[in-house]
Amino acid sequence: QVQLVESGGGLVQPEGSLRLSCAASGYTYSIYHMAWFRQAPGKEREGVAGISTDGGSTNYADSVKGRFTISQNNAKNTVYLQMDSLRPEDTAMYYCKANACSRIGTRNDYWGQGTQVTVS
Q1: Cβ-contact 32, 101 below 8 angstroms
Q2: What is d(CA 46, CA 116) in angstroms, rounded to the nearest whole number?
Q3: Closest CA to 65 of 81, 53, 49
Q4: In Å, how far are 10, 48, 68, 77, 79 from 90, measured between CA atoms?
Q5: Cα 69-73-76 angle, rounded to 5 deg
Q6: pLDDT in tens, 56-115
Q7: Going by DSSP bridges, is the β-strand pair 115-119/10-12 parallel, antiparallel, or unpaired?
Q8: Which of 30, 76, 100, 114 is most buried by a 10 A CB count?
Q9: Which residues contact 21 (CB under 8 A, 6 or more apart)?
Q10: Using an 8 Å Cβ cutoff, are 72 and 53 in contact?
């Protein structure tokens, strides 16, 4: 099992910045990819950014490229999302997701409880 706890959300003015954190615990050795998703009221959950835990390769949604940066601290089992130049349309609940594979090859996805980001 893997547990994820997000933090760092809040209220920020347009063009402001926030840094979200996602701390993983439990069987963290099994995690091979982590990502941030977001969901605004009345909309589907969408992927924002992802990072592979071994090589650190990253990917971003077009809507956040150049403004958001995903990074990781493997020693702390934590993934970050630095969000700059925030826009009102970035307002959403932000969720952390971990993709894990056990030693016997069982794959599972884990989600955090979410942290609210409001840009206004």
Answers
A1: yes
A2: 15
A3: 49
A4: 12, 10, 11, 26, 19
A5: 140
A6: 899 999 999 999 999 999 888 999 999 999 999 999 999 999 999 988 889 999 999 999
A7: parallel
A8: 100
A9: 6, 7, 8, 78, 79, 80
A10: yes
